[in-house]
Design goal:
Blueprint lengths: L1 E3 L2 E3 L7 H8 L3 H12 L2 E6 L2 H16 L3 E4 L3 H11 L4 H9 L6 E7 L5 H13 L3 E6 L11 E4 L5 H18 L7 H21 L1
Parallel strand pairs: 3-4, 3-5, 5-6, 6-7
Antiparallel strand pairs: 1-2
Helix pairs in contact: 3-7, 5-6
Amino acid sequence: MSKNKGKTTTMVEFEDLLDTFNDSIHTKEFKKLQDDFNNAEHVFFIGNGGGHAVATHAASDVSRLTDKKCHALDNASYLTSIANDYGYNNIFMKFLEDYAVKGSKTMVIGFSGSGGSKNVISTLSLAADEYDFDTCLITGQHSNSTPEYINQVCFNNRYFHVHEILCMLTFYQLVHGTGNHCPTIKEEIVRKGHVESYRARKYKEI
C-alpha cells in the first residue's frame, strides 16, 4: 500500500485469480478443452476488445511454442473491409469461412468476458454446425445464449481485466498441456546470444 498526496492507494482487485485458475483447470470442461486442443492441428482464436488482444497474442505464441497452425483476425485492412461489407457481428464468421478448411483437425476458441458476445457465439456455432470443428467459449460469466454442445470454461469473474488475465493464463496452460513449455527469460537471452554470435561469425567470414 502506498500513499500519494495524502490519499491511500490500494492494489487493483484481481479476485484471487490464481486460486480461480487452479480450480478451473481441474474441471471436466477444462479437461475437454485441453483434449480438443491437443488433437487440433489448426486453432482459431477470436474475441473483442481485450479478448481480441489475447486472441492475437495466443495465435502468435501457440504457433511459436507448438507445432499448431494458429490464426487470429489481426489484419486491420481485412478486418475493416469485412466489417464494412458484412457487418461487425459477422466478422469472425466471414474470417472462418475464408480461412478454415472443412475436414481439417481444427478448433475454434472464443473469448468473452460477459458471455454474450454475439459475433463470437455465432462463429462457434458455425464452426460446430457447418464444419464439425471442436469449439470452446472461455467466458467470465456463464453464457445462456451459447448452444449446449459448445464447451464452456467459465471463470465467474466480476471484472473484465481479471478475465483477460485468466484467458492469457489459459493459452499458456494449453501449451503446457501439449508437453511443450514456455522458455525462461534466461533461456531466451542465451538463445539470442548464440544467434548474434552466429551472425557475427558469418559476417566475419564474408
